[in-house]
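Side project, low priority. Logging it here so it doesn't get lost.
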Amino acid sequence: MPAFTESEIETFSLDELKRLGFSYIPGPSIAPDVEVTDGLFTAEPSVPFGEPEKRESYGDVVLKSTLEEAIERLNPEIPAAARQEALKAVLSVYSPQLIDANENFHKLLAEGVPVTVRKDGQDRGERVWLVDFQNPENNVFFSINQFTIIERNQNKRTDIILYVNGLPLVVIELKNPADANATIRKAYDQIQTYKIVIPSLFFYNAFCVISDGLEAKAGTLSAPFSRFQAWKTVDGKKESPGHVSQLEVLINGMFNKATLLDLIRNFIVFEKYKKIDAKTGLTQIETVKKIAAYHQYYAVNAALVSTRRAMGILEPRPSPLAPLPEGEGKNYRGGLDFSGLVTEARELRKKQTPVEEVMWELLRDKKLQGLKFRRQHQIGDYIADFYCNELKLVVELDGSVHNIPSQSKKDSTRDAWLKSLGNRVLRFTNTDILENIPTVLQSIASFSAHPSPLMQKVISSAPSPGSASHPLPLGEGRGEGYANRKAGVIWHTQGSGKSLSMVFYAGKLIRNLNNPTIVVITDRNDLDQQLFDTFAASSSLLGQKPVQADSRENLKALLKVASGGIVFTTMQKFAPSAPSPGSASHPLPLGEGRGEGDISSMPCLSTRRNIIVIADEAHRTQYGFETKFIDTKDKDGNVTGTRKAYGFAKYLRDAIPNATFIGFTGTPVESTDINTPAVFGNYIDKYDIAQSVDDGATVKIYYESRLAKVNLTENGRKLIEDFEKEMTDDGATETQKAKVKWTKLEAIVGHPERLKNLARDIVAHYEKRSEVFEGKAMIVAMSRRIAVALYGEIVALRPQWHSEDLKAGALKVVMTSSSSDKMEFDPEDPDSLVIPAHHRTNKESRGMLAERMKDPKDPLKLVIVRDMWLTGFDVPCLHTLYIDKLMKRHTLMQAIARVNRVFLDKPGGLVVDYIGIGTALKEALAFYAGSGGKGDHAETMQKALEMLLEKIEVVRQMFHGFDYMRFFAVGTSERLSLILQTEEFVLAKEHGKDRFIKESTALSKLFALAVPHEDALDLSDEIAFFQSVRARLVKFEGDGETDGRKNYETAIRQIVNQSVASTEVVDIFDAAGIKKPDISLLSEEFLQDVKEMAHKNLGVELLKKILNDEIRARLKFNITKGKNLLEMLEASIKKYQNNLLSTAEIIEELISIAREIRSVDGLAEKLKLTKDEFAFYSALEVNDSAVVALGDETLKVIAREIANKVRKNATIDWTMKESARAKLMVIVRRTLNKYGYPPDKQQKAVDTVMKQAEVMADYWVNTDSKI
């Protein structure tokens, strides 16, 4: 799509939406003040259930008439009073917190509005549906542009709003790609402004879309800019080509009616998080709204199809059209020659509803009694859903639309005509098909004189399609994978939302299957808790709270619950006997420590067929079937014999033999792994590192080796290499010889002198990064003993980081402890592990530390771990991982992914190697590529440095011909002058300011990545200078509602550099190099100073900023004069930007506007009016004929009286109450009549005065001058 203007982008978007079936309505055509004689705009395409009535007020964001009609049509069985109750509930949605109001409405939308109805003398709870999620075409879809909303004192006009049944569910904000200032970020900022100014629109918002015509991203109302993401595919099968704009792909991908409704109901979640105030210790609940990314949406839906197939549930599927047998055409058309609907019938076959697909599966190929049925079959002027010529039987499937009286009448006429030809007609509802198939089949079979025994058997045992209660026998026919209990594997790279995908998947299972029990399995307790917390935080989507099985008996009881549920457990609970001593966090090799004899089977816990097992990290060896012979030991650890044990996959199948298995993994399945496919099946979906980084779902990881910074002997290096060869992929070592080596290795790695060096380097490295990069770090130690010792060395260097209070301190150790650990050194047991009290944590305290770590503002900045938090732990602000532990393959890939989360403008994560994982990283990459994955796990720091050097050259080239390096050679007094010259040089270039801000921002990010590389540090002075210039130019940004880029959240910090500290910018006057005046900014003296500035471009920027702020300040209490002045300013700036004015000429024009502002300010005093009275006078004098007819004195009297009456009648929330508004409108109208205000101009005057009254009421509230 070529570069368009904003209006052309809007037109393009509306045209695409029309093609998808959205009826277009211009916003002004349903405005409350549209003349009745004008008539309403005819929607295009036409609206199936009637066009909306005009809005009652500009504050209305819901199209009440459309919603009311939809509620009546979709809920005919609900009494009218209850429907009105539901309508009222929707229209009265409110909460002081916007996110809470939005969540409350979303619950009504997704689950129906709860109402109470009286039936058979008893009160019953029912649900009133606002949207038909099953049949998209049974809803009304509008796209409305230029929709004006007035709330309190603010008037905003949105670009496009998408309405479903009168509800404003999607807000689309567009910007002009031809305008360098109109970026997609500005579109995001506009949405943020809307949320503050017109919040009621966002009570009903599902999600928002921002675009500049080329880029297009979607996100929720609580999402930061970094979490707005593109939608890369229309159908989920392949990514759209690069020459197609993101906007076009997003519209066609997300706004397909079925996809849009599916997203809204099944792929939006409100997650709840605890936030602990480090100072007070108080806990707050924070709500975050999330919507699925495209890869999550399509993967979950593919997984649902795969799961149903694996369970043996009939999955509706299209089939090829069979031609009619020769000579049958006329007979099959009811003996009629007319065949004009054949094309239409064929099109309908291609677009069958899901319920029609289910029915066709049961009737096709003579499955039923050997009877031949046809689908979407023409008989005369009608097309029947299904027709059997042998029985002369028409079968019709009716959605809720057939309950409408007008449609019922048409159905009766149709049935009468069909019966007149000798046909019999059977009608079934969609609910009949989905919930009571045996009765349906019995009804059809009753038309056959002699049902066959096979038919009787089918009728008595037919499953209910869409239900998991009675899936077909394991492996029975239906093609590959049918009823084999293997749903497949989803491989989505770490950090790309795998846990949330599991939540969405579970939510769709619950809604689409008949009370399934979902068992979520991990292989460690800490992972079980982390994933459980994610599900628990999303309980609103799931419709229930998950539970954790605390024992095998508890698990068995939970699996027997017929009503289903979500159960969390660990693999170890499926072992035939209790797990090895210690905890499930550190399982011993399979079968170890479990007594004598073979472990051949696991008792059956449940034979239910609707159990779905979701396995996290499904690639792991624990899921195998293999047999192992392992040593048995006595209590002293001596080997007493051997025994046979199996992989947990066998025990799982023993325990729940009829369950269906699906695996989720963040790393690929190895090509040599036969266990994972044997348990779960093949891949359902892949989403690799390259795609994830390209989509912005994760950030790149960089690798830095600092082996040279710590003392490690040659003998130590050799021992590490040997140990690494014997280490399994998950870090375990099984041979006695390897364990002896491990003990030696721990002694070398944990040597006191080495740990001192390690602590010094980590502290220096982290502090250097923290100077330019806000965030947190994690240290991975080889053992618990080393973790405790390293903590001691670090706090010896930084004692202020220590605190024995878990709620305080900057450094913590996170690990388990055992009863054998000592609290202090024991001379009688010198080899025992000493774990001080402040390092001993339980499940609850570790949860509290996790919340602290996730909070970017919490003083906890570093943690030391051994195994915990290396998988499944999501801390977006974590930017550095210090590794001092050997890891490989899956374990290593999962660990380094801790730093790949998106956070603000975080440019990437860094892995620092202190033990030599470089080779393991290369092997992991080779394995990853061999499994079909694209993208590097970690780029080297050299790559980051190269990008930094390239970017600084780009910035340097912007100053070609200007010697800014003089800054570092001159004295302090000359530096400010040079800074101002630099600003002037940038501003003199076309688009210079925006380009410099953009490039210097990118430079700062790359610098933060490369620090503390020595070559990067050598550039710190120069980069600090560029940052200083940028900070000054940013001061000129902003439009009065936001303060420009300076308020954008950022993880990149300004470099603290002594050479530029004296040039720190405080305000726009510092930025322009001019003294802030002690008197008015609009005084003649100050304007003259600006006019005489040596740096003219700086003068223009200064005046633009001052005048913009001054005018917007006046808009808050005098809407008429403020609007006039703003139009003058915008017109002048536009002429300057179009090169119609020189720099000197624009300064003159801006000074003239400043004088006009000063003149307007003096008018009130000249007319002997207060500021309030003058504001209403300004609203009245816009009508020239009124000024001529009444004169200034009468207008002044009217203004005084109106101001006084508004002051008396305007309460704080009067603008939200229609009765209060109506009363005030009557008062204004009577006052105008009283003084003979021209009647033909009264309506406009009333509207203007009412707008002014809203502005004034808000001004009074904010200034405490009244109300």
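Brief comment: Residues 1143 and 1253 are 40 Å apart (CA to CA).
Revisit when time allows.
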